[in-house]
TrEMBL record:
UniProt EC number: 2.7.7.7
SUPFAM superfamilies reported in the protein's UniProt record: DNA/RNA polymerases, Lesion bypass DNA polymerase (Y-family), little finger domain
Gene3D superfamilies to which the protein is assigned, alphabetical: 3.30.70.270, 3.40.1170.60, 5' to 3' exonuclease, C-terminal subdomain, DNA polymerase, Y-family, little finger domain
Record flagged with keyword Hydrolase: no
HAMAP family linked: DNApol_IV
Class of enzymatic activity (EC top level): transferase
Pfam families, per database record: IMS (PF00817), IMS_C (PF11799), IMS_HHH_1 (PF21999)
GO cellular component terms, A-Z: cytosol
Provenance organism: Deinococcus aquiradiocola
Protein name: DNA polymerase IV
Residues annotated as catalytic: E122
Amino acid sequence: MDGMSAAPTTPAAPDGRGVVRRIVHVDMDAFYASVEVRDRPELRGLPVAVAHDSRRGVVLTASYEARTYGVRSAMPTRMAQARCPHLILVPPRMDVYRQVSERIRAVFARYTDLVEPLSLDEAYLDVTDPREGPRSGTLIARAVKADILRETGLTASAGVSHTKFLAKVASDLHKPDGLTVIRPEEAQAVIDALPIAAFHGVGPATARRMAEHGIRTGADLRAQTLADLRAWFGAHGEHYHRVSRGVDERPVAPDRERKSVGVERTFETDLRTLSEVRAALPALAAALAVRAARAGYAGRSVVLKLKFADHSVVTRRTGGAPPAPDAAQFEALGAALLTPQLLAGRRVRLVGLSVTGHVPDTRTEPLQPRLFPLP
């Protein structure tokens, strides 16, 4: 990224030897939809959504042409079709996406052993000490993108910086097929200009709460004291204080094992009745289905989480057979866990759904099972 002003107050995130890290975040562009368009060239340039064509179906991925109509991931299929009447629905082929993902992971492994998977189509790479090629995060990111395109026919966007947070921000700035670098001396200016919703962990409800305190950008967030952020946002306040100053020392963790996949929603107005809480489940279940699919994650149990107005928390989980990884099943199981006794007249501030207890997926034979294990 050119033309950014220097910001010497932002630390350069050295590793344990005092070397400034080179972190690359790679994010495939509209991955599932792009695989379908690659395999069916007649779809090129048309609005495509990967989704089951059913009353309860949700969009897993939308092509960029579909996104211009407001079609988004986790959107109910019927709503997507209402926004784009000529939307082409393609059923997901998870076995194909896993096979393509393994080929992409093999590309990563050529350059570094330090690869942290986030989903089938997204990963962090620490290329501070690359296995081959130049000692330049930018040149390695360019080579990774070129290898992926040549070997899979798909484009990826990449971000390069000295922290995981900034590498992720960079990869989002110029999609699709982008390559963006945020250097240490540019970092604070980039952070200051970010809308608050671009910060990890800031959902719509938190963004609205921040707006009530005059926080709409990274610069606004950085202007707040740690004491105020803790008072307003509890334990999350310290994270917001650090990340607004470019402090992110999290390592790229190749052995990180995903123990669960979940989604939560905090409500501006507390929910008071069982029916109000139940009405929140369809959207959460749809989002959970998309997140679990992207992560390649199947679990043994569905967990319902409720946080009450007094900040107390209760969770309930299913037993028995592993749930089918779809929105309708997640919603039904969440609703079954929701009982009048669970609320006991208390007001609900947050509702969460997650799937936990990873079940290895054996439906396809991975090409390189030890290079880059599924989360």
